[in-house]
Amino acid sequence: MSDLSNQHYVDDAPYDPNEDIKALDRPDLDAPNWLLIWRKFKRHKLGFWSGVFLLLAYLSLPFAGFISPYTPNERNADHLYAKPQSINLWHEGSFIGPYVYPITAKPDLVNFQWNYIEDTSAPAKLKFLCKGREYKLAGLIRSDTHLFCAPEGATVFLWGADRLGRDIFSRILYGAQLSLTVGLIGITVSFILGITIGGIAGYFGGRTDWAVNRVIEILRSLPELPLWLALSAAVPSHWGPVAVFFIISIILGLLDWPGLARAVRSKFLALREEEFVRAAEMMGAKPERVIRKHLLPNFASHLIASAMLSIPAMILGETALSFLGLGLRAPAVSWGVMLNDAQNLASIEIYPWTAIPMLPVIIVVLAFNFLGDGMRDSLDPYSDH
Predict the structure, then answer these.
(1) Domain coordinates of the chain in residue numbers?
(2) Which residue among 193, 218, 256, 283 is least packed, with the fewest CB closer than 10 Å?
(3) Could you check whether the bond before residue 331 is cis, i.e. omega within 30 degrees of 0?
(4) Which CATH entry fits the domain spanning 171-379: 1.10.3720.10, 1.10.1270.20, 2.40.40.10, 3.40.50.970?
């Protein structure tokens, strides 16, 4: 027979009543819901870093004029199609700080193109917090201070110049102000219409639901691109850039709401039969309060993820319309307008940097898609990510 005293151990330490609580002391048991969502979202690396990138991009929009060395329509007639210039730190083994080599244009009469030759014997140091062309900071405050400028007798075309000698880097920063903002305005219009119309159809049902569904089916059956073109072509050509910008944003929002309205309708049809909704109705809550206080909060996660995935569609819509010449027009600056200027394939073949404006479109659209995926996974309680 084995010795039972060797199989059991009794601790002589006094009993601690909080020991069981400490064993179960997990930070996620009593954490608020938003904190749990944030922790899950941080584990989605692509979504998290895409969100950081987009946050920095939107925060930099008011300071585009300060960051840019040139204003968007500032021309340099001596540097048409100038090639991108690199910023160097060392010259002939000595550290002299950020500088560029001056470039001189030489016409190639055989291939009918401009060639630019660097003068590597005379490095031109960049100037910082320098005076330049006047711009409006955040669209309100006049200023002429730029983060960096080219010294006298030199240029600083980080991503080259276009056919009119305008700095592509500066125009991309200015173009972001319109191209990134059009998605926010469009999604606001789309959400107001989609949530309102879809919520009414899903909550009341009956003939209202039938009528809304027929309208949604008609709108979704129309070819999207020809409809965009028809509505954009109806915008008067004499309107200013700001008016055209808002009209394009509203058009994109008007064409995007049916999909959201259908999703809201289907969710409300299921939620309106829940006990908490019935209890609110029995207590005398009006329909608008039931929708606002009880139905929408239970659908908020889907709405947030849907918004993140709809904004890139708005950006692509504005880019496509402006590229075809039916959206924003010069002198307005957007990524679509810049691509419209660079649609000559022969010029792109000779001066490939004129196609650089398509890169921010690709990067921003991918970032929004990654962010939407990350938010959808973090808001989904059944997701394993």
Answers:
(1) 85-156, 171-379
(2) 283
(3) yes
(4) 1.10.3720.10
